[in-house]
Give the backbone structure.
Amino acid sequence: MTPEQKQEILDTYTWIKVKRYKDDETKSWEERYKELEKHHLEETNFLITKIREIVQML
């Protein structure tokens, strides 16, 4: 991992490669909740994978 990549992780959120959640107010609250939950799972899985990659580098 380059020093630039390390600094990006420390300073920003741009390194998180999961699209930002967009609320669709035309859907029911149940649908919106399911979409939000799905987004959180995608983001969590991405972060866990990234942490594992970083730990393997150590």
